[in-house]
Design goal:
By secondary structure, the chain is mainly α. The protein has 2 domains: 68 residues; 75 residues, Orthogonal Bundle (Arc Repressor Mutant, subunit A), CATH 1.10.10.10. 61% of the residues lie in helices and 6% in strands. It is built from 6 helices and 3 strands; from the N terminus they run αααβααββα. It has a 3-stranded antiparallel sheet with strand order 1-3-2. Helix 3 crosses helix 4 and helix 4 packs across helix 5. The longest helix has 33 residues. It is globular, with a radius of gyration of 20 Å.
Length: 145
């Protein structure tokens, strides 16, 4: 970065408003959803190409459970908790905007694995509607809205 560019960046930062921050937040949220979708797609392709190891067979690339890290993808419990919290927040933001939706639609739009969506929708932020869709509960509306 040259010395000529620094004053321009500083001037832009000084002129930044809450609207600019909101635009950046929207872009970050959209990129996170896209990234989560790509990660899920990568997992599907990986298992399609390599298959799942048979249960009960310890392969060199799939050590026994006691030898594995905290999770299969190497995340520590704190990281998994943060990821879960972020997924719940994405679902809540989507339902705040959408009103109500079915679980498969929520999973696809929010980039949540289909195997995880039912557990996430048990959170007290969400409630099941009579037509088997999900919506924000009062607690969810208070937390998000």
């Amino acid at each position: 970065m040259s010395k000529n560019e620094q004053p321009d960046i500083l001037a832009a930062l000084e002129k930044a408003t809450a609207e600019d921050l909101a635009k950046i937040d929207k872009q970050v949220a959209a990129l996170k959803l896209r990234l989560d979708g790509l990660v899920a797609l990568r997992r599907v392709i990986h298992y399609r190409l390599n298959g799942n190891p048979r249960r009960g067979v310890a392969l060199a690339s799939h050590p026994k459970k006691k030898d594995r890290p905290a999770s299969a993808d190497g995340e520590e419990p704190a990281e998994r908790g943060e990821k879960t919290r972020q997924q719940i927040e994405r679902i809540a933001a989507y339902l705040l905007k959408q009103g109500q939706s079915r679980s498969a639609t929520i999973a696809n739009i929010c980039g949540v694995p289909l195997g995880s969506i039912s557990q996430l929708l048990k959170h007290h932020y969400f409630q099941k509607t009579p037509d088997d869709a999900y919506a924000l509960s009062n607690a969810g509306k208070m937390a998000v809205g």
